[in-house]
Amino acid sequence: MDWFPDAPGQVLTNLIQNALIHAYPDDRGGVMRLEVGVLAKEHIELAFADGGQGVSPDQLPLIFDPFYITKPSMGGTDLGLHGTWNRVVEKLGGRMRADSMPCLGLSVLIDLPRVAPASGS
Known about the structure:
Blueprint: H1 6-22, E1 33-40, E2 43-49, H2 82-91, E3 95-101, E4 105-113
Antiparallel strand pairs: 1-2, 2-4, 3-4
């Protein structure tokens, strides 16, 4: 893989941080899963699932929007998963989508080219 060295780590850190803040109410804990697979010769897939409480259907379409937050009292940058989306799509040239089911949590599927675009913008 030929990527910008900081971007994949930031993506995973943001997904984990988001799950720790939002997925497990009342400190009940849970299990996060990360799977990596080869989609094609030029693409890999990262599948992240938090196993938490999930995202409501009305919030799901908004989770990658800038400044959309569900817990403003928790601090942070107010960018939520938008920063993650921006790194995946803009910097790494990938695609990202999310799904959610009650009691199964939020699942994020990321399709990344093995070689990031040269510009990284």
